[in-house]
Every structure is written in C-alpha cells, then in structure tokens.
User: What shape does this take?
Amino acid sequence: YLNSPETPLYTKRSLLYGLHLATPTITETGEAVIVEGYTDAIAAHQAGITNTVAAAGTSLTPQHLEALQPMASTITLAFDADPAGLQAARRVAELPKTALSGLTLQIAALPAGSDPASLTTSGRSDLLQSAVANPMPLVHYLIDCLVSQHNLDEPEALVRALRAAGPLVAHLTDTADRAQAVTHLARRVERSENIVETALKSHPHIRGRVTERNAGRTLT
Assistant: This one.
C-alpha cells in the first residue's frame, strides 16, 4: 500500500483506518484495539478481532482517541513488538492528560519482532488473539521495559530506573491506576511501596552522578 502524505482531504491525525467496519464491535464491547498499519488492521479482522482500527500511518493522536471515546472506554494497543513500536506506545502514555481522561489504556504484548500482520500471515493468529485477549496495563508494560534496561544491583542504576519510570506514573490521571503502578514498580525493583513512593516524590528530577549516588544510598 502507499502511505500517502496528509492533505486537506486526508487528515491522518483524526482518521482511523477501518473504523466503519469496527464500530459495531467497538460499540458492543466498549473496547477498541489499535494497531499501527493498514495491513495490521486487515490481519486482525481476518483473525476475528473485529474491533480493530489503525492509526493511519502516523502516531496515535488526541483526535484519534476523541473519535473513539463515544464508543469505547478501554483502548488496547497491539503495536509492533520492536523498538519503534515501544516508542509509539510510550508516546501514547505521554499524551495530554485531557486526551486520556476516562480511558483505560492496555497493551497486547506480542512476541518479540512480530506484528499483527506477520503473525496472521505466518499462521500464528492464535498468538495475536491470545495477546489481545490477555492485555496488561500500558504503564505496567512500559515500566517492565524500562526497568529491564538497568542492573538493579547497582544503587545508581536503581535511581535511574525510578527516574525513567517516574514520569509515566505521575502522568496517570486516575488515583487507583497510579497506586497500582507504584505497586507494580515496587515489585519490579524489589523495594517496598513506601520506599518507591518516597523516591518518586523526593527525587523527581535527579540530575548528575553525585546526586544519583546520594539518592541511591537512600534506596538500599
């Protein structure tokens, strides 16, 4: 397919590919599955996931979510399982709070290196179906990805992991969601919730190796 540029008649920032076909299932279930590309949306529908739409060759935007909010309160991302897909997922978590208000954000964790289209065309649509049926909270998934990049046996690395995850937790609009994210983060870094909560409040903008060392000592 040709991923054409945006024009006055084709506004990528607000149009969702396949929405006309997905609307009945989205309305029935209150959940929308969002994939990255057109072929991914086609593949998901072929796999029976008929509440799937695609961001039309661009990042997911507040306008996309606004189009879905009258029908769906839960958004499940089924992005490509590669670095670009991870970055796209993080951009969704960092959208303005007004755009995310009232929405539950989830992610379908696909096998590494795969995407909905490749899974379907290779005869592994069952893996796509399972991932969509068993999503995890988006922020929890992003926390896992960030924490896995650090050696938590090193106090300074622990501080860096908390510093990286902190903005994701702080950006959550729902108090219960934030509490669950803190619990998940504490479990991942193997520290108490009180220690993690204190660290997030006390060191929101840790800068410099000296500060990291001092902060790290308070977490051990």
Q: What stands out?
A: Confidence is low (pLDDT under 50) at residues 205-217. The beta strands are 16-17, 31-35, 52-55, 74-77, 104-107, 136-137.
